[in-house]
Amino acid sequence: MTDTPVGVPRKLLPRFEEAEGLGPQDAEFVEDLVAVLAKHGNLNRFGLCLLHDHFPLRADEVLVETNDPEARTLHAHVERADGTRHAKASQWRFVPHADDEADTEPAAGPCREIMLCTTLDLCPGHEHDDEEDGP
């Protein structure tokens, strides 16, 4: 089970169509981030994702990622946070300063889980002894 608090309101993210992707103006930011990841040995562990919403989630819901390795597809769906069997977080969102989200409970650390993944579906970090490495 995830350690994401159930019932914590989420600050709204922009819709995908409105979210601004990386551009030339972000070069210095990306270089700084790469340097920090390299310093801590995490270049092959973490990257970037564009935070956005396609649809709203209630405070008691979580987005869950599964995959079909034979069809080579990823799927995301909504589950109740207190009833999901998916336990491994695959995406996190940095928690802003308290004055930015004054009406929410404090997170357990500097990040809040925003997507979970089932290790049963070959999500990153899961090893299968009977599977051969793919391309």
Topology:
Layout lengths: L26 H13 L21 E8 L4 E8 L7 E7 L16 E7 L18
SSE class: mainly beta
Mean pLDDT: 75
* Global shape: globular
Q: How many β-strands, per DSSP?
A: 4
Query: For the terminal residues, how far apart are their CA atoms?
Result: 31 Å
* Main pleated sheet: 4 strands, mixed
Order of helices and strands: HEEEE
User: What oligomeric arrangement do these chains adopt?
Assistant: single chain
The share of residues in extended strands comes to 15-25%
Radius of gyration: 17 Å
Helix content: under 10%
Order of strands across the main sheet: 2-1-4-3
- Unreliable spans are 1-8, 97-107, 126-135
Number of helices, counting only DSSP H or I runs of 4 residues or more:
1
Question: Can you put this structure into words, describing what you see?
Answer:
The protein has about 140 residues and is mainly β. About 10% of the residues lie in helices and about 20% in strands. The protein contains one helix and four strands. A four-stranded mixed beta sheet has the order 2-1-4-3, with no helix packed on it. It is globular, with a radius of gyration of 17 Å. The chain starts with about 25 loop residues before the first helix and ends in an 18-residue tail after the last strand. About 5% of the residues are buried. The model is unreliable at about 1-10, about 95-105 and about 125-135 (pLDDT under 50).
Question: Can you describe this structure in just a few lines?
Answer:
Helix content is 10%, strand content 22%. With 135 residues, it is mostly beta strands. The protein has a four-stranded mixed sheet with strand order 2-1-4-3, with no helix packed on it.
